[in-house]
């Protein structure tokens, strides 16, 4: 009896299809999918699309960006972590991965990924209305210390968002409680900047590029940036350390990665490619044009960076009462 | 003047002209497919703009979004399925006109008044940008709360069914908008542990479900309606001049409201269409004709949603604050192309600014011939047998929902809302009010809570700020007016029989 069952026939067909992929040791042998947890048209989407276009140029296979949105980023982040570690699904992850699990919204952490390269980091600034009496970060800090808890209002993003943590971390570093300044949740940085211009807030802690148009329009001032060094696009804004001697830095970062257990050969190809892309004129021009903060780290450096950020976010969230248990 | 000539030269470049034409066709097609919104049409263009010159990149976005907002009217009118949320307000009206055999008039009105709205909106951008931007910046969360609340009131004004049922479906919409963690507290609500519900219910799947899927379901259980008389599809623009003269005031009111709403960040074409349609009904001399296939509301709302599109660029260009979801995407493209938003764009890069104005005007002018072609092609749908149209629509709904986030969950959402919409329609609950609740719910809540946090729980600032005071008065006026009329009618009604008895 050597009748061919339907299943073996299908199986052999699949094996035939898979054979070239297995035989060909050289990755990438076919198009690679790049998942983006955020919607098309946003900042993360822009970064992953330019990286994908440059990877395509470097490695000679199409890198297709797929926006897997939903669940405040949880869906897309989980999709990257759960994809098959064959090198044909990579993705971009953002600082939210260091926050969502503290809130009990997902089990996925940075450990579920194979980092390939840190491509960008936007540090938060401290912005006030142009008519505000505070001329320096020190003035503002004095006023905050002198004010009754909850009297002063700041905004920049939703409750528990990255810029809320920036505020909490800054207040902590000053020796104040994380809710000493009341956080006004907003639907992103743009409405917060609008409210700052309408004199509805004392200051915002969104990133400097997000405040850029208002800065250019002379509607607000940026007092400091919570970064280790000044931003190349905004050289006039002092770092927090320069402005008031507090060495607190954080930021919204974006990392190219694959699922955990990515083959070493894939990593060996992508990691140096990303390093070349980061240095390329195309990518640097892109960062400068959007006002995005540049920051690069190789795979090992990225892993360390994400671990440190994860710990710092957890601390800030516990201090602000945002973490679950 | 030199700047103006330079602008003409910039726009007349072959790559810009090709970009305008190609994105116009693209916008018309995407906008007319149920489930694919104008915002999505724009978002999908972003990767393309990487390879275009700055002016061509901005041209694609302006043109595609203007076309998509207009062509969203087409499936709404022909099949009672709005292509974009901005068309949802007057879909029933346009469809009623089609059933009366006036499809060309309804679509023509959509086209003609969209183009006029777009051009008037552009003029407002040219002439009053700094003034309008100043106004937008004076709006704080208190004002936005009243504005969104006023938007919700439109549910009762627009509905033809009983106001009680309209309010009930609006409240259901508000309940649905509570789902997810995109609320001021950042706490997941009603998610039942489902990750997919964390981000809340997007208006698009809900809209596609309650309008398109429920329409398909209805088609399955009702006998095929008597075919429309087979006749030549009449001239599309023939009656539009007559309409323009007859409904001059509603048209200008629509343009005006569209401009104001467009300028305010966060409130876009959707809200402009709703408010204008409601206004139109409220101030019409013949409000009883609304909903039976009466062009007046179409004129006003059609002009309004396109006017808002142009004026939505005002805060974006001056302060980098998006007027709506489309300009939010456009701002990213502007930065990428070195056209950084800000007042300097108007002074140092004046030629680019003029080029932008020119593109707006061109887009709204070529909308008329291209729109006519599109309408003629689309109108063949009316002749196709229903059994072959409905499956295609169902397929488009599924594809459109999936395309928004490569997420199967939104397809399920569309199916669920289809069932909800079907049951609601059968029992006389207007589904448009449900969509309004979903769209406005977050805005009402967000601004209410934020305002209270800012005022430390004091509700007085909602009334003492001058603009919010006026808006509050308008809201209460709209709220109490029907009650007042009802009481007056009741007391009159009681007095009359008493009077007759005495006689």
TrEMBL record, chain A:
A matching Pfam family: TctC
The keyword Calcium is annotated on this UniProt entry: no
Entry keyword set: Signal
Signal peptide: 1-23
InterPro entries linked: BUG, Bug_dom1, TAT_signal
Keyword tRNA processing among record annotations: no
Family matches, as SUPFAM superfamilies: Periplasmic binding protein-like II (SSF53850)
Family label: Belongs to the UPF0065 (bug) family.
Name this protein carries in UniProt: Tripartite tricarboxylate transporter substrate binding protein
Annotated organism of origin: Roseicella aquatilis
Automatic annotation (TrEMBL), chain B:
Keyword Glycoprotein attached: no
DUF112 domain: residues covered: 17-436
Keywords linked to the UniProt accession: Membrane, Transmembrane, Transmembrane helix
Top-rank taxon: Bacteria
Record's keyword annotation contains Transmembrane helix: yes
Membrane-crossing segments per the record: 7-29, 49-70, 106-129, 141-159, 256-277, 313-335, 356-379, 391-424, 431-449, 469-488
PANTHER family reported in the protein's UniProt record: TRICARBOXYLIC TRANSPORT PROTEIN
Descriptive protein name: C4-dicarboxylate ABC transporter permease
């Amino acid at each position: 009896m050597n009748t061919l069952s339907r299943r073996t026939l299908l199986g052999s067909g699949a094996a035939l299809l898979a054979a070239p992929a297995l035989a060909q040791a050289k990755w990438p042998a076919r198009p690679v999918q790049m998942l983006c947890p955020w919607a098309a048209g946003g900042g993360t989407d822009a970064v992953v699309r330019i990286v994908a276009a440059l990877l395509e140029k470097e490695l000679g296979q199409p890198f297709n960006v797929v926006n897997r949105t939903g669940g405040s980023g949880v869906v897309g982040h989980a999709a990257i972590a759960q994809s098959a570690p064959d090198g044909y699904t990579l993705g971009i992850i953002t600082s939210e991965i260091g926050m969502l699990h503290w809130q009990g919204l997902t089990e996925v952490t940075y450990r579920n990924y194979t980092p390939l390269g840190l491509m960008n980091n936007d540090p938060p600034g401290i912005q006030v209305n142009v008519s505000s009496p505070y001329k320096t970060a020190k003035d503002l800090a004095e006023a905050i210390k002198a004010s009754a808890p909850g009297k002063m209002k700041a905004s920049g993003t939703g409750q528990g968002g990255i810029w809320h943590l920036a505020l909490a971390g800054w207040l902590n570093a000053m020796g104040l409680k994380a809710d000493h300044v009341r956080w006004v949740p907003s639907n992103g940085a743009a409405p917060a900047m609008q409210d700052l211009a309408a004199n509805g807030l004392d200051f915002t802690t969104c990133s400097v590029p997000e405040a850029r148009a208002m800065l250019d329009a002379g509607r607000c001032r940026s007092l400091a940036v919570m970064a280790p060094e000044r931003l190349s696009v905004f050289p006039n804004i002092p770092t927090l350390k320069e402005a008031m001697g507090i060495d607190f830095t954080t930021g919204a970062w974006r990392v190219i990665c694959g699922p955990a257990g990515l083959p070493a050969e894939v990593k060996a190809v992508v990691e140096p490619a990303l390093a070349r892309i980061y240095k390329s004129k195309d990518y640097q021009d892109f960062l400068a044009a959007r006002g995005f903060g540049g920051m690069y780290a190789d795979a090992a450096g990225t892993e360390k960076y994400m671990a440190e950020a994860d710990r710092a976010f957890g601390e800030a969230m516990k201090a602000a009462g945002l973490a679950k248990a | 003047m030199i700047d103006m000539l330079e602008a003409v030269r910039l726009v007349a470049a072959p790559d810009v002209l090709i970009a305008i034409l190609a994105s116009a066709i693209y916008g018309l097609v995407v906008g007319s497919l149920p489930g694919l919104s104008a915002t999505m049409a724009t978002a999908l263009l972003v990767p393309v703009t990487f390879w275009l010159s700055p002016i061509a990149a901005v041209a694609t976005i302006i043109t595609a979004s203007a076309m998509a907002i207009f062509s969203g009217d087409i499936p709404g009118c022909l099949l009672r399925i709005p292509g974009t949320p901005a068309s949802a307000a007057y879909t029933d009206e346009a469809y009623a006109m089609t059933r009366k055999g006036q499809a060309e008039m309804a679509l023509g009105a959509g086209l003609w008044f969209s183009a006029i709205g777009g051009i008037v909106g552009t003029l407002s951008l040219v002439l009053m940008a700094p003034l309008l931007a100043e106004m937008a910046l004076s709006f704080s969360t208190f004002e936005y709360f009243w504005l969104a609340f006023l938007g919700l009131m439109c549910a009762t004004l627009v509905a033809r069914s009983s106001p009680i049922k309209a309010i009930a479906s609006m409240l259901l919409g508000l309940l649905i908008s509570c789902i997810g963690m995109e609320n001021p507290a950042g706490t997941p609500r009603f998610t039942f542990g489902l990750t997919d519900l964390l981000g809340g219910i997007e208006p698009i799947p809900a809209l596609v479900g309650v309008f398109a899927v429920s329409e398909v379901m209805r088609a399955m259980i009702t006998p095929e309606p008597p075919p429309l008389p087979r006749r030549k599809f009449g001239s599309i623009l023939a009656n539009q001049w007559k309409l323009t003269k007859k409904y001059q005031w509603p048209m200008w009111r629509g343009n005006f409201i569209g401009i104001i709403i467009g300028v305010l960040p966060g409130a876009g074409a959707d809200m402009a269409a709703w408010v204008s349609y409601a206004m139109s009904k409220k101030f019409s001399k013949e409000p009883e004709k609304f909903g039976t296939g009466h062009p007046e509301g179409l004129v006003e709302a059609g002009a309004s949603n396109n006017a808002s599109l142009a004026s939505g660029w005002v805060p974006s260009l001056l302060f980098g604050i998006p007027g709506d979801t489309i300009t939010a995407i456009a701002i990213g493209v502007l930065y990428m192309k070195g056209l950084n938003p800000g007042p300097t764009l108007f002074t140092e890069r004046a030629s680019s600014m003029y080029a932008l104005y020119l593109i707006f005007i061109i887009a709204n002018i070529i909308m008329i011939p291209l729109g006519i072609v599109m309408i003629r092609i689309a109108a063949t749908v009316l002749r196709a047998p229903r059994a072959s149209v409905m499956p295609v629509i169902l397929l488009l709904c599924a594809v459109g929902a999936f395309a928004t986030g490569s997420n199967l969950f939104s397809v399920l959402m569309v199916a669920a809302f289809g069932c909800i919409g079907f049951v609601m329609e059968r029992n006389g609950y207007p589904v448009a009010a449900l969509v309004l609740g979903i769209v406005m719910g977050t805005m009402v809540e967000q601004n209410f809570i934020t305002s209270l946090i800012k005022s430390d729980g004091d509700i007085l600032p909602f009334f003492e700020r001058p603009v919010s005071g006026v808006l509050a008065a308008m809201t209460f006026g709209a709220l109490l007016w029907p009650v007042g009329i009802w009481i007056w009618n009741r007391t009159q009604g009681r007095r009359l029989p008493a009077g007759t008895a005495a006689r």
